[in-house]
Amino acid sequence: MLSQLSTLYSSFMRGTPLLVQLFLSYYGIPVMLNILNYKFGWEFSINDIPSMLFVFVAFSLNEAAYMAESIRAAILSVDRKDIEAAWSIGMTGGQTMRRVILPQAMIVAIPNLGNSLISLLKSTSLAFTIGVMDMMGKAKVVAGNNMRCFEVYIGLALLYWPMCIIIEFIVHKLEKRFNILDREVQQND
């Protein structure tokens, strides 16, 4: 049952646009709170909820689905022979996971997790659609005030791009750190 629910969740979150999920969060959470207020006699004020909360909910649920798939795939990529070898020397399931599976899975997962982080950064521009004033929102206001749209959006691109380059750099360093096999081969050459 839990496996089927997680599969359904992952499929829904990966199969629908983030913008739709953002609107579902923005319009759906107040509806759910109204139902809870009515059913349990609570008095949650829907007007006191900051728009940023809806952004966090939508982005968190969306990224969780993608990251879960990345981690699942990375764990499944570990060679079954390595797992059996760990069991044959008497390692428990937990020890096998910590000492054999996770170190190898991290090498596979890090690039995908880095890509997800970059995608999340770029997706923050959608927050303006529900009234959160982010970089995209500020750019739209400035472009609307001075009618210099091209220059404003070039400037915005030049803000996002270095942030993505920094994330790529960090991910590359993490890949090198976790990839023990490459370090051993380079040292032996």
How would you describe this protein?
The mean pLDDT is about 90. The chain is mainly α and about 190 residues long. It contains 8 helices and no strands.
The rough form would be described as flat
Residue fraction in strands: under 5%
The largest sheet is:
none
Question: Runs with pLDDT <50, length 5+?
Answer: none
Count of DSSP strands:
0
Rg (C-alpha, Å): 22 Å
Give the overall average pLDDT.
90
Helix content: over 70%
N- and C-termini, Cα separation: 51 Å
Structural category is: mainly alpha
- Note the total helix count: 8
**SSE order:** HHHHHHHH
Short précis:
The protein has helices at 2-15, 18-40, 51-76, 80-88, 93-123, 135-146, 149-178, 180-188. The chain is mainly alpha-helical and 189 residues long.
